Amino acid sequence: MARFSGFPKQGLQFLRNLAKNNDREWFQEHKGDFEQYVKAPMTELVLELGEDFESFAPHYLTDPKKAIYRIYRDTRFSNDKTPYKTHVAASFNHKSLVKHAAAGFYFHLSPKELLVGGGVYMPGSSELLAIRRQISADPKRYEKIVTAKPFQRYFGAVTGERLSRPPKGFLAGDPAIEMLKQKQFLASEMLDPELALSPKLLPELSRRFQALAPFIDYLNQPLLG
Question: Does the CA dihedral 64-67-68-72 come out positive or negative?
């Protein structure tokens, strides 16, 4: 059975046009294009990724209804009142943990970029403390994961917001102090958005998510209790 063949060119073109016409009237007139060229192939891609996840991350949600972000922006607390996102995105989160507070896989596509990666984006204080304690207890284990060849090949360094000083409850002399200053634990790679038009998109995403899986599992381990 043929696997995902890529987004149609009309999908990226729709997103380009949306960036220039980000209003409800234009979107309603072109909603059929969104459904056919963006939403439908995105759903197919997520379903195909779900099959691959079974081999390396079976505990992560891949139901398109839960994984794919809505195209509609929440403008309630934003100065930017444009109603629609100009990219499509999906995240894959652990079935037993809270989305964004725990670690998950993520990708998004716009006409300008294709980003793939994951990690912990918005940990609460309890989640962040649990992760830091795990790192502090055995920093070599964490280092081994983030210096592994597959992780380095695609993602390089762990990124995200950092503290300038040691976090509360940890000593400046802790051997892992630089790692513990992370407020977010993220890893990502930027790819050419033209890849999205190719059958290579699915295997390229799968390879990167598989390389990321030990990092994601490590971050979630202390959160699972």
Answer: positive
pTM: 0.96
- List, in sequence order, every residue forming a beta bridge with 162; answer none if it has no partner: 182
**Cα–Cα distance, 45 to 58 (Å, whole number):** 17
CA distances from 211 to 4, 9, 114, 164, 219 (A): 21, 29, 17, 29, 14
Among 33, 52, 45, CA closest to 7: 45
Mean pLDDT, 10 residues at a time, the chain of 225 residues: 90 98 97 98 97 97 96 91 97 94 97 98 96 98 98 97 97 96 98 98 98 98 93
Tokens read off for 174: 């802790």
Structure tokens at 40: 């439908």
Look up tokens 């999906």; give the residue: 90
| Number of Cβ within a 10 Å radius of residue 107 | 25
